[in-house]
Write a structure and sequence with these properties.
It is built from 15 helices and 13 strands. The protein has helices at about 15-30, 50-55, 75-80, 90-100, 110-120, 140-150, 160-170, 205-225, 240-250, 285-290, 300-310, 325-335, 345-360, 360-375, 380-395, and strands spanning about 10-15, 35-40, 105-110, 125-130, 155, 200, 230-235, 255-260, 265-275, 275-280, 295, 315, 340. Helix 1 (about 15-30) packs across helix 15 and helix 11 crosses helix 14 (about 360-375). Strands 8-9-10-7-6-11-12-13 form an 8-stranded mixed sheet, sandwiched between helices. Strands 2-1-3-4-5 form a 5-stranded parallel sheet, with helices on both faces. By secondary structure, the protein is an alpha/beta fold. Residues about 65-75 and about 75-85 have low confidence and may be disordered.
């Protein structure tokens, strides 16, 4: 439903993934409320997802080179000081105080920090997406529930269990799903792959992403021996840099073949080893996920996006900060059986992939579970409808 009345909405987020969620909601708000003004205020970085979505960014966006960690190196930590990153809370305070005069409603995505900044300095009705905490993993303290109940007019928790617990504490909480699924750019193409099961490998980021893609490539080799005519796709338009990916796998014995004139749409090359072929696709994740029979997910966000599109996801822990055993355990608790977590062993991954692609009943059950637990496609639109109802209730819209 589209409305014509003007409304000024400020989206405050506290990290990269929260920026992604904020950008999806901001885009949907602008679509459903074309005459309204929607702007963003990222607290923890540059706000790249907002820039990509064309959402105006307010405030002093800046990303610490050392991310506040001395262990990243004293040189980076000193550059953080020189660039003024430790003055950001003061700058945020000043910018938010100014923003309050042109804002009707605030959407906060992340932890209690953006919520605190919103109710302390903007002082407008708040919609809160507590994306970083689930009662299934870590319970809210009483004072946290009290703050949320006192300052938030509407809350979208990350799962139904958390929503129920918050409602018991008087919080206006409703679970609708994960809006990140709506941020995918989905294309209708088969990328020219031959007929057969399609296994899409969804890479992570940074050094850990390179380590995990090498493990996934080894699992693909094992899978190719078990699954007849298996096709493997890797999106390289985002996440891992294409050259870095090729260089790392070449060092492990893979041979790179540039795409020829007869290559399918989006194909930029192949990595080949012992008869196993990995197709490199120069597109973002959406089309590669849609083409998949099953996904090997190496990133928590991409895992949830694939689950929301009804694709079985197989993943495994690794060293590093993003996809650790603890992170996957938390995600598994929140998502349930839809996410298949296996040991970081190529044979173990291959066996589960084989079982999933050859058992249609299992695959269908996993697909349905993924959609149910993440809300599927259209979560952002449903959230915007709830926000619209709230705006009418508060008298912000005629």
């Amino acid at each position: 439903m589209s409305i014509s009345s003007s409304l000024s909405v400020l989206v405050i987020s506290s990290g990269t993934n929260q920026d992604r969620i904020g950008a999806v909601l901001a885009s949907q708000l602008r679509k459903q409320w074309p005459s309204s003004r929607v702007s963003a205020f990222p607290l923890g970085g540059w706000g790249d997802p907002y820039h990509e979505a064309g959402v105006p960014v307010l405030g002093a966006a800046r990303k610490p080179l050392a991310h506040g960690r001395i262990r990243r190196g004293l040189a980076s930590f000193w550059r953080d000081i020189q660039t003024g990153c430790f003055l950001l809370p003061w700058r945020h305070t000043r910018a938010l105080r100014s923003a309050q005069y042109g804002t009707d409603l605030v959407i906060c995505a992340g932890d209690l920090y953006p919520l605190f900044m919103a109710y302390r300095y903007v002082r407008k009705p708040i919609v809160f997406l507590p994306t970083l905490k689930s009662e299934q993993v870590q319970k809210y303290f009483s004072f946290e529930k009290g703050r949320i109940q006192r300052h938030c007019q509407l809350v979208f928790p990350p799962d139904e269990f958390t929503a129920q617990r918050l409602r018991e504490s008087g919080v206006a909480a409703v679970y609708l799903g994960n809006p990140l699924v709506d941020g995918l750019e989905v294309t209708d193409t088969d990328f020219g792959v031959a007929k057969g099961p399609v296994i899409s490998i969804l890479p992570g980021t940074g050094l850990q992403g390179y380590q995990k893609i090498m493990q996934a490539a080894a699992a693909a080799q094992k899978t190719a021996q078990l699954v007849r005519d298996a096709q493997f796709l890797i999106p390289v338009a985002s996440g891992l840099a294409r050259r870095g990916l090729v260089r790392r796998l070449q060092a492990d014995g893979w041979q790179f073949r540039p795409a020829g004139a007869d290559a399918g749409q989006g194909q930029v090359g192949q990595l080949v080893k012992d008869g196993c072929v990995l197709q490199l696709i120069a597109q973002r994740d959406g089309g590669v996920i849609k083409a998949a029979t099953v996904c090997i997910g190496l990133d928590p966000v991409r895992n949830q996006q694939a689950l929301g599109m009804g694709k079985p996801v197989i993943t495994f822990p690794a060293n590093g900060r993003r996809l650790t055993a603890a992170t996957l355990q938390a995600q598994e608790k929140a998502i349930g059986e839809a996410l298949l977590v296996v040991k970081p062993n190529p044979d173990a991954v291959a066996k589960v992939v084989h079982r999933t692609v050859t058992n249609s009943a299992l695959s269908a059950r996993l697909a349905l579970a993924g959609k149910v637990r993440t809300g599927g496609v259209g979560v952002s639109a449903r959230m915007c409808e709830k926000i619209q109802d709230l705006a009418f209730e508060l008298g912000l819209l005629p």
